[in-house]
Amino acid sequence: MYDACIIGGGASGLTAAIALKKSGGDPSVIILEKKHEPARKLLATGNGKCNLSNENCPGYRETLSFFQTLGLLTREDEAGRFYPYTEDASDVVEALLRRNKSEGVEVRCDAHVSAVTHDAGGFHVTYGTKSSLHTIDCRKLLIAGGGKAGPAFGTTGDSYKLAESLGHSVTRLAPALTAVETYDDMKAFAGIRAKARVILKYKGEEVFEEAGEVQFTKYGISGICVFDLSRFLILPEGKNLKGGFDDYEILVDFFPKGGDIENFLRQRAHMKDLAGENILDSLVRQPIGRAIYEKSGGDVKAMAELLRGWPLRPKGLKGWDFAQITRGGVPLAQVDEETMESKIVKGLYFAGEVLDYDGPCGGFNLQNAWETGIRAGRGMSR
Ligand SMILES: Cc1cc2nc3c(=O)[nH]c(=O)nc-3n(C[C@H](O)[C@H](O)[C@H](O)COP(=O)(O)OP(=O)(O)OC[C@H]3O[C@@H](n4cnc5c(N)ncnc54)[C@H](O)[C@@H]3O)c2cc1C
Fold first, then answer.
1. Is the CB of 372 under 6 A from ligand 1?
2. Nearest CA-CA partner of 369 in 82, 72, 152, 63
3. What mean pLDDT value characterizes the chain?
4. Is residue 287 pLDDT above 80, yes or no?
5. What is the spatial distance between Cα 337 and Cα 42, in angstroms, rounded to a whole number?
6. Which residues form the RsdA/BaiN/AoA(So)-like Rossmann fold-like domain (predicted)?
7. Within 13 Å and on the Cβ side, how many CA atoms surround 65?
8. For 284, which DSSP code?
């Protein structure tokens, strides 16, 4: 009988184990991790640099001091994003694993949890393969198995099934922080990157906008500002993927800092070598310039409008393999947010992406994992 069992050796699970051990009483703690090694996803975060928090997260100071206690030096970039000082995600993983080891946490890998039951004697956790199943018993159980995004890292949505099997509900799940596929034929623009602003409209109303680098691909658009936009591209209730996003429109503004573009184009129209279809040269990359020129029919006012809002029709989102996070999960209303304990099953806790939280790019999602992990660890110690 373990005092605590943690399902998932990722960001939130490893953090929770440390917080629980630090709270005293020397509890016996085991982490069951499905993959051959823990924290595989963490190694891939922030393009291998691990953007671990952001100064715009209300709880970022606690995260920084948590990592300070692990001996991990961090640095902040000009946009307020925090990284390990070496900008090497493996240093974050090492720091977490080192402390888990020195605290005596048992980390068991290749341990795929497939079922959990609960009775007066505590929780009974079944893991392993069909031919070799094992069960361990524990007094407290933390589900920290992540979401559905990036299944190659072990996150295939098991946490939601386990939560449901214990009486919790799960809100609608969707891939988020992902690229957008468009109906528009984008092949001519594939490979182009533009400093621009993306605007999302739903039924004509603006619901999101962000400036950044837009990457054009053969299927649509990508880039951090597009990832952030994807969190707001929500399939309306009752609609399916086919045609489900038809009430949305994306506009790409190639002059996010504004200015009188129309007047500027009129002046260029008087320059002999820029008149006609060359008028947009050096303002946008040539394939985009050609497309805008054609669409405008050579009309300067129409061209100026298209430069400030080139319309694209979203068809769908790049799926789980591409997405960084999951939208939806176990409703926060079903947990005590101070201790992360379930309001439905005593002794059951949740941390990380399994919860119905999704944040923008920039360290917000890892911040959520550390923060809920720390609270769950402390909560389990009570
Ligand atoms: C490519 C990529 C880059 C990212 N970059 C950033 C970034 O720079 N900054 C940021 O804030 N966020 C980033 N994210 C998001 C962030 O990684 C996640 O939100 C965060 O890791 C979630 O933490 P977690 O503890 O809930 O789950 P995870 O860290 O995903 O860990 C869950 C663990 O549970 C294990 N598991 C799953 N099911 C079972 C089971 N049945 N039995 C046993 N173990 C199981 C998994 O193998 C996994 O190791 C990125 C995501 C991806 C995919």
1. no
2. 63
3. 96
4. yes
5. 24
6. 3-378
7. 5
8. B
CA torsion, ordered 362, 367, 368, 370, to nearest 10 deg: 150
| Residue whose tokens read 């006012």 | 301
Cα of 79 from ligand 1 centre, angstroms: 23
Cα of 212 vs its chain's centroid, Å: 17
> Which of 276, 298, 317 represents a domain boundary (last residue)?
317
> What is the reported pLDDT for 238?
87
3-state secondary structure of 255: coil
Q: Say whether both 167 and 228 belong to one domain.
A: no
Closest Cα to atom 9 of ligand 1: 363
Question: Is ligand 1 within 6 A of the CB of residue 362?
Answer: no
- Look at the chain and count its residues: 382
Q: Residues 371-380: what's their mean pLDDT? A: 98
Mapped onto helix, strand or coil, the DSSP state of residue 129 is: strand
Phi-psi domain of 349 (left: phi exceeds 0; alpha: psi -120 through 50; beta: other): beta
Residues 376 and 291 reside in one and the same domain: no
Whether residue 157 sits in one domain with residue 192: no
| Cβ of 178 below 6 Å from ligand 1 | no
Inform me whether the pLDDT recorded for 69 exceeds 90. yes
Q: Among 41, 130, 322, which residue has the most ligand 1 atoms within 8 Å of its CB, making it the best to mutate?
A: 41
Q: How big is the CA angle at 146 (ends 80 and 88), to the nearest 5 degrees? A: 45
Average of pLDDT values for 133-139?
A: 97
Find the domain containing 196 and state its range.
Answer: 180-317
Query: Which 8-state DSSP code applies to residue 34?
Result: S
Main-chain dihedrals φ then ψ at residue 151, nearest 5 degrees: -60, -25
**pLDDT over threshold 80, residue 275:** no
Of 317, 345, 364, which residue constitutes the final position of a domain?
317
How far does residue 40's CA lie from ligand 1's centre (Å)?
A: 8
Maximum distance among all Cα pairs of the chain, rounded to whole angstroms: 86
